[in-house]
Design brief:
111 residues; mainly alpha; Alpha-Beta Plaits; two-stranded antiparallel ribbon
Length: 111
């Protein structure tokens, strides 16, 4: 690894969540839950017009831009981190309403 593991602070976590919410509005995707933890993010999103990987990659891309902007303000005299995410992620289709309720509850309440 060329950079250490990411540990998001509270401001970064809020920024990532806001970026995901804003992007869902722009794309007209239904956001069921988002929870940015100190070292990973959970998102439950309905984007039936896209393959399962597209929302994840767009969220990572936009959040990276916003995080780099924040870090360039905070650390004007230091190198800004390049890599914020793992190469891929974990994608799962949710097939039923009860599964959606369960995964949304997990993301919102059980972490």
């Amino acid at each position: 690894m060329s950079e250490g593991a990411v540990v998001f602070d509270s401001e970064q976590r809020l920024l990532v969540e806001k970026t995901i919410r804003d992007h869902c509005v722009i794309r007209k995707w239904e956001l069921y839950a988002v929870n940015c933890r100190t070292d990973h993010v959970h998102v439950v999103v309905g984007a039936s017009d896209r393959s399962i990987e597209i929302p994840r990659e767009q969220f990572k891309s936009w959040a990276t831009r916003k995080l780099k902007m924040l870090e360039s303000i905070r650390k004007s005299d230091q190198v800004v981190r390049e890599h914020w995410w793992s190469d891929r992620g974990w994608d799962v289709y949710v097939d039923t309403e009860s599964d959606l309720d369960e995964v949304t509850c997990y993301v919102n309440e059980e972490q």
